[in-house]
Design brief:
The chain has 313 residues and is mostly helical. The protein has helices spanning 3-11, 22-39, 47-61, 66-78, 88-91, 99-105, 108-116, 122-131, 152-167, 178-187, 195-205, 284-297, 300-309; strands spanning 216-218, 221-222, 224-226, 230-233, 244-246, 252-258, 264-272. It is built from 13 helices and seven strands. The protein starts with a helix and ends with a helix. 41% of the residues are buried.
Length: 313
C-alpha cells in the first residue's frame, strides 16, 4: 500500500460529505516533508508534535474559532519546513552555532515561504512558517515586523517554539525546568513574545498540562534516553515490547521493553543499526492523527476561508 492509499484509508472516516480527499492528501504530503526535516536533527525528536500541541492549546485558551485552532495546530507542525534548505553540518552541529552559522539558520523562514509559494494549501501554514521568528519589538527576522503586523498564527507559534527549545535537551545543554522557561517567557512579554498570548501560555502551566507534553514525542510517550547521546530515542503509539529502535545521533540500537505496569522503556543491545535500519521513516499514524484532529474541528475549506480573513502582512 503506497502513502496516498494509506492516508486515504486512515482519514476517510473523518472527511466531510462531498469534501473529497485530495486536499487532505496534499496536507499530508506537507506534514511528511516537515517530519523528514525533523528526522535529520537527532535532538529535535517530537519537536513538531510538541509545538503543534502547545499551539493548539494556546489557540484554545485565546478562544479562537475551531477553524483557527485547527489551522494554528497545522502551522505549528509545519513551522520549520524551511530547514529543508539548511545543511546537516549546521542542523546536526553538537555545539552552539557561531555568528555565520546563525545567519544561515535565520534563512529558514524565508526558505519555507518560498517552498509554500505555489502550494494550494499555502495559506494554512505560510504565516507560521515565514514569521515565527518575528518579535513584537521589531527585532525579529526575516522582516522585522512589529506587534500586530506579525500574523496571529506566527505570534502563537513563536511562543510555543521558543518554550520547546528552552525545555528540550541539546548536546551542549540540558533542557530547562518548565518554571524557568516560563519565567523567561514572562520577562519577555511585549518584547520577544506577544504580551496577551504569552500571558495565556503562562496560565496554561497552572493546569499541569504542559508537563504531559515537555519531553514527549506524542501524548503519553516520553522520549527515551540513549546511553551515549541523551534523549534521542523516539517511540510511537505503535511501538511494542521487543521491537528495535535506534538513536538518531549515534545509531545505537535499543530494544523496547515494558514494565509490569506496561510503561515502555529501552535497553541497549550493544549493536549499531545498519544504513537501512537507520533510514528515517515518516510516522504516518502520527501525521494522520493530526489531520483527523484538524478535520474533526473544521473542514479544510473553513480553515482556508478563515486564513484569508486574517490580515497577514
Amino acid at each position: 500500500m503506497n502513502f496516498r492509499q494509506t492516508i486515504s484509508r486512515w482519514i476517510s472516516p473523518f472527511l466531510y460529505p462531498d469534501s473529497g480527499d485530495r486536499g487532505h492528501e496534499l496536507l499530508a504530503s506537507l506534514l511528511v516533508m516537515a517530519w523528514m526535516v525533523e528526522a535529520r536533527d537527532p535532538y529535535t525528536g517530537g519537536h513538531l508534535w510538541r509545538v503543534s500541541r502547545y499551539a493548539e492549546l494556546l489557540a484554545e485558551k485565546a478562544e479562537l474559532t475551531n477553524a483557527d485552532v485547527a489551522r494554528v495546530a497545522i502551522g505549528g507542525f509545519l513551522h520549520d519546513l524551511g530547514k529543508i534548505g539548511i545543511s546537516d553540518a549546521i542542523l546536526r552541529k553538537p555545539h552552539p552555532l557561531d555568528a555565520d552559522e546563525f545567519d544561515i539558520i535565520r534563512t529558514h523562514p524565508a526558505i519555507g515561504g518560498r517552498l509554500l509559494a505555489a502550494h494550494p494549501l499555502a495559506a494554512l501554514a505560510r504565516p507560521a512558517v515565514e514569521s515565527h521568528h518575528e518579535r513584537p519589538d521589531g527585532r525579529g527576522y526575516p522582516r522585522g515586523l512589529p506587534d500586530e503586523e506579525i500574523p496571529l498564527d506566527a505570534r502563537i507559534v513563536a511562543i510555543c517554539d521558543a518554550f520547546d527549545a528552552m525545555t528540550s535537551t541539546r548536546p551542549y545543554r540540558v533542557g530547562m525546568p518548565i518554571d524557568t522557561a516560563l519565567d523567561i517567557v514572562a520577562a519577555q512579554l511585549g518584547t520577544q513574545f506577544d504580551a496577551t498570548l504569552g500571558s495565556h501560555f503562562i496560565e496554561l502551566a497552572g493546569s499541569g498540562i504542559l508537563e504531559h507534553i515537555v519531553g514527549h514525542s506524542e501524548d503519553g510517550i516520553p522520549l527515551q534516553t540513549c546511553d551515549m547521546c541523551g534523549p534521542t530515542l523516539v517511540l510511537t503509539w505503535a511501538s511494542t515490547p521487543g521491537e528495535l529502535v535506534y538513536c538518531r545521533s549515534c545509531g545505537g540500537e535499543y530494544r523496547i521493553t515494558a514494565s509490569p505496569s506496561g510503561l515502555l522503556g529501552t535497553t541497549a543491545t550493544g549493536r549499531r543499526g545498519t544504513a537501512r535500519e537507520l533510514e528515517p521513516l515518516a510516522d504516518v499514524a502520527l501525521i494522520t492523527r493530526l489531520i483527523q484532529a484538524a478535520v474533526a474541528r473544521a473542514p479544510l475549506a473553513a480553515m482556508l476561508e478563515r486564513s484569508h480573513e486574517e490580515s497577514y502582512a
